[in-house]
Design a protein that fits this description.
alpha/beta; six-stranded mixed beta sheet
Length: 317
């Protein structure tokens, strides 16, 4: 029986099914929205099934048939990727697809350049990039929808392997006009009377608030945001201080305001940036090559977009 669909159509179908939006799916797989719509329409026509219900205000929802088809499509795509990896391993050549997840809080700084250098080094590799929250990273690793992820060592379960790259101590981020801006370091207790802009993301939020719990005090949370760039702009405009482990190459907020990064003093746990993957995934040649690629950059202090010379930053061995 001839194949009635393409892997590309299945990939687009899964992207829409996961996001519930053609526009978001198009952004995630880096193609145009009309291309996604056409692929879904062709797939529905070939299969003779309605895969989605169109909801004007809420995007698209999978039908019952669509949910069953999506589960099978994910399996088919994973098996196709496994065949490509097997061929790569047998040939001894780094090639084929690599699905890379990256934590939203630093994806814009690190992933594009790290990926570009890797693809230049291995031109037969095609990297797909996904910006995700920590729990989404775990879910996609477990279902095989991503191969490896750049993330923090937050709540890493026993079924994952975590490859540490660099330890990043927390810094207090303030506007240049903030009363603390001239300090060489700041303790948690000294933050008590100042308003805080909280990066309100799962797991990251718990990590940030743990500093205050350990010091037996509470922060004065004035603003909350789930976007680290919005956080930086709020800080730059005087809405409060923030705490961040990532320090970009420049200390300028997105809207041009200058920021100050001050080490947080005391016994505060750094975040370790590294690579999360399911146990055994490093046996795949392309995954192993990407791990080595990231380790080289970390050892040389050249992870893209980051100021790795900041005081107190430990380098990976």
């Amino acid at each position: 029986m001839p194949l009635r669909f393409t892997f590309r159509q299945l990939e687009y179908f899964v992207a829409v099914g996961e996001s519930g939006s053609i526009a978001v799916a198009a952004e995630n797989v880096n193609v145009s929205s009309p291309s996604i719509s056409a692929a879904i329409g062709q797939l529905e026509a070939e299969l003779g099934l309605q895969l989605f219900v169109r909801k004007h205000a809420r995007g698209l929802a999978l039908t019952q048939a669509g949910r069953q088809m999506m589960a099978q499509a994910i399996t088919v795509l994973n098996q196709a990727n496994a065949l490509t990896r097997l061929a790569s391993d047998m040939s001894g050549k780094v090639q084929g697809p690599l699905a890379l997840g990256c934590l939203l809080t630093f994806a814009q700084l690190i992933a594009p350049q790290l990926r570009r250098v890797f693809e230049h080094r291995y031109p037969d590799v095609r990297v797909s990039q996904f910006e995700l929250h920590q729990q989404d990273i775990f879910d996609r690793l477990r279902t095989g929808r991503i191969d490896i992820a750049l993330t923090y060592d937050l709540d890493i379960a026993s079924d994952f392997r975590f490859v540490p790259l660099v330890a990043l101590p927390p810094h207090v981020v303030v506007a240049e006009t903030h009363p603390l801006a001239g300090r060489a370091s700041v303790s948690v207790a000294e933050l008590e009377d100042h308003p805080m802009v909280l990066l309100d993301l799962p797991l990251s939020r718990d990590y940030l608030l743990s500093f205050f719990e350990n010091a037996r005090t509470k922060p004065r949370i004035a603003e909350r945001t789930r976007d680290i760039e919005v956080m930086r702009s709020l800080v730059g405009n005087g809405f409060g201080y923030a705490i961040a482990n990532i320090r970009p190459l420049n200390d300028i907020a997105p809207d041009g305001k200058r920021l100050r990064y001050i080490p947080l003093a005391g016994k505060v746990r750094p975040m370790t940036m590294g690579l999360a993957l399911v146990a055994g995934a490093e046996n795949v040649l392309t995954v192993r090559a990407f791990i080595d690629h990231c380790r080289e950059h970390a050892a040389e202090g050249t992870l893209p977009g980051m100021n790795m010379r900041q005081p107190g930053t430990a380098r990976a061995p």
